[in-house]
Amino acid sequence: MDINLLVKITSRAWSLTILARIHRGTPARQAALLADTGAGRTAFAASLKHLIDLGMLERNPGHGHPLRPEYRLTAIGEKAAAMADRIKAIAPETSLLRRSWTVPVLAVSGTPKHYSQVKGALGPITDRALSQSLKQLHDARWIEREINTHTTPPRVSYCAVGPGRQIYRAAGLEAQG
C-alpha cells in the first residue's frame, strides 16, 4: 500500500476501525458494524461511504438473505483491512488513531526525519496539521523529537518509537520510510 492511499483511508475517523472490525469477523452489516465500532451514526455513515468510494468495500450483490453480509471487502480492501487490524491491535482503544494524520505521519517516520522531509512525504498536509500531529504523537510518546545542536541552526528530527514504531511496521511502508 502506498502513502497516498493510506492518507485517503485515514481521512475519515472510523475507516480504520471499520476495516479492522470486518477483518476480525464482525458481520459486514451496517447495524452490526455501527454497534461494534461505537461510532456516531453520521460519522459512521460518512466513513462507510468513504470506504465504498475508495473501492475498499462494495455492496454485496447477494444481499437480501439474513445471513449474507450487506457489504464485502474488495481485493484492495482485504489488504487494507489486514493492515488496519494490525494497527488496531497495537492501540485498540485510543482516539489518537481516529485522527486523520496519525497513521500517515507514523508510516513515514520509521527513520529520523526533519519536519520538511515528513511534510514532503505526506503531500497535502498543512503546516498546522503536521505540527499538531507531531506534538500529539510526541506527547503520547509515539514519536521521539531529537534536537541536533551540532548544526547551525539546530535541527529537529522526528522518529517513531514505542507503539508508534509498531504502527510504522504494521502500516507496511518500510521501503518508503
Automatic annotation (TrEMBL):
Matching entries from Gene3D superfamilies are given as:
Winged helix-like DNA-binding domain superfamily/Winged helix DNA-binding domain (1.10.10.10)
Q: Which InterPro entries match?
A: HTH_HxlR (IPR002577), WH-like_DNA-bd_sf (IPR036388), WH_DNA-bd_sf (IPR036390)
Q: Where is the HTH hxlR-type domain?
A: 12-89, 100-168
Q: What is the lineage of its organism?
A: Bacteria, Pseudomonadati, Pseudomonadota, Alphaproteobacteria, Rhodobacterales
Q: Which superkingdom does the taxonomy of this entry point to? A: Bacteria
Q: Show the Pfam families listed in the entry.
A: HxlR
Record key words, sorted: DNA-binding, Transcription, Transcription regulation
- Kindly indicate whether the keyword Protein biosynthesis belongs to this entry: no
GO: which molecular function terms?
Answer: DNA binding
State whether keyword Transcription applies: yes
Name the source organism: Sulfitobacter noctilucicola
Name listed for the protein in its UniProt record = DNA-binding HxlR family transcriptional regulator
